[in-house]
Design brief:
230 residues, alpha/beta, Spore Coat Polysaccharide Biosynthesis Protein SpsA, Chain A, nine-stranded mixed β-sheet, 37% helix, 21% strand
């Protein structure tokens, strides 16, 4: 029986994006003997590339990160659900370690550790993240360090109340909004040091820059977050 849904978002604009996304899917399938329910929501309506997944969805609406996750969540069926970027590589045994941490620390949500350097928008947290021992489980909601929007896992009970996500956050500040909501509910989250998923980093930012809509989906959303949370 499948025990983990994995929702990927992708904008397959060229062969390099296709290879990156396919590599993420392949690494997931090869990481464990468990079967995953793989859901991919594709932004590019004209993409000639297809993926071997359980559910391949091309929404009619234009790109909105949370709106696309809301669509993907309709196809979830498992006791756990992961939200993942397509610029990742899943390491062997990542899910076994993650699942064990859920049980041993009574977690509601969790993120894996990326063992690679990212050096994106938050270099301090990313360096700290890289040097966290694989034996350590770090509780808390520090964005990028303990709560990693590029890959996080939730129990079914969390999925059932947190969706639909707030679609005014079309990309940036989505993580911030989610962590606020989780903390409001008294949820327990942690970075699982032994669960390794390499985040290649910043690929989605490059694609948004190329589209000319970078500010619309990034820093322009700060005012929405401040209005909602003060």
């Amino acid at each position: 029986m499948k025990e983990l849904d994995v929702i990927f978002l992708s904008n397959t604009c060229d062969i390099e994006t296709y290879k990156m996304t396919q590599n993420a899917i392949n690494s997931l399938k090869n990481s464990e003997s468990n079967e995953f329910n793989i859901i991919l929501v594709e932004s590019n309506k004209n993409s000639k590339y297809k993926y071997d997944v359980d559910h391949y969805i091309v929404p009619e609406v234009s790109f909105n990160y949370n709106a696309y996750l809301n669509i993907g969540a309709e196809y979830c069926e498992c006791d756990f659900t992961a939200v993942s970027n397509n610029d990742v590589v899943f390491n062997k045994g990542w899910w076994t370690k993650m699942k064990a941490a859920f049980e041993s620390h009574n977690l509601d949500t969790a993120s894996p550790k990326s063992p690679t350097e990212q050096f994106g928008l938050n270099p301090y947290w990313e360096i700290k993240h890289r040097y966290t021992p694989i034996t350590k489980i770090v509780e808390g909601f520090d964005i990028v360090y303990t709560f990693c929007g590029w890959c996080w896992v939730m129990k079914k009970s969390v999925r059932e109340w947190i969706f639909p996500l707030d679609e005014q956050f079309s990309f940036f500040f989505q993580d911030n909004d989610i962590t606020k909501r989780l903390q409001q509910k008294g949820c327990k989250h942690a970075l699982v040091g032994g669960s390794l998923v390499n985040h290649l980093g910043q690929r989605s930012h490059k694609i948004l820059h190329q589209s000319g809509e970078y500010m619309k989906h990034t820093f322009d959303l700060e005012k929405n977050f401040k209005k909602k949370w003060g």
